[in-house]
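Quick one: structure tokens for this chain, please?
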Amino acid sequence: MATVLLLRHGRTAANAGGGLAGRSPIELDETGRAQAAALAPRLAGVPLVTAVTSPLPRCRQTVALAVPQAPVVVEERLIECGYGQWQGRPLAELAEDPLWPVVQQHPAAVTFPGPEGESMAAMSARAVAAVRHWDAQVTREHGPHAVWLACSHGDVIKAIVADALGLHLDLFQRLVIDPASVAAIRYTATRPFLLRLGDTGELRFDPPTPPASADRPGADAGAADASAGESDAPVGGGAGGGGFGRVEV
């Protein structure tokens, strides 16, 4: 099967200011544009066959700066979670909301308030379905060694990675996805393999190793660990800086 690079958009003013942008049409800030531009040389050696992106401006801008040569397709199912009445509010204020501890400890049970509020379970289901759909299509059209990119949002990517790891959605807050970081997943007939997580270093493409290699004791999954440093996860993904700084590959 093909390999997908899951790219979170670069930083926005909402990220930097501790706000929850949600589906607001917020653009990249100066730092975010620099992060996206810095992706271009990192991804230059990766033979991407296509880039699929959330429709929101911050993702589309990130893709335009990071992989200007790649064919781009907008995928509605990769849009940010619908945070409903939480959208646009400061995370510090939301932390006082009675729903906050449920978001932290039992996100699979959460539906955000208001008519535009989405459940985290629904967000996870549609994002995973989108990535698996595109991965199968890329494999059919370009072969099992193809590489493609999907640009989305912090919580969305966390949900996709959690699914790949076989984690219940209630555990996805243990994952950290910084702005402009890359995760890499290779799906197979029986299970996915997480090849990278939270990667902010130089990327290179190597042909996939046989799936059986992961069955060997001591096999290296190649994923970088990251931690937010506090017990609570920033809803929406936060501004980055998970405590480990730059991860070199």
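The beta strands are 3-8, 48-53, 72-74, 147-152, 182-186, 193-199.
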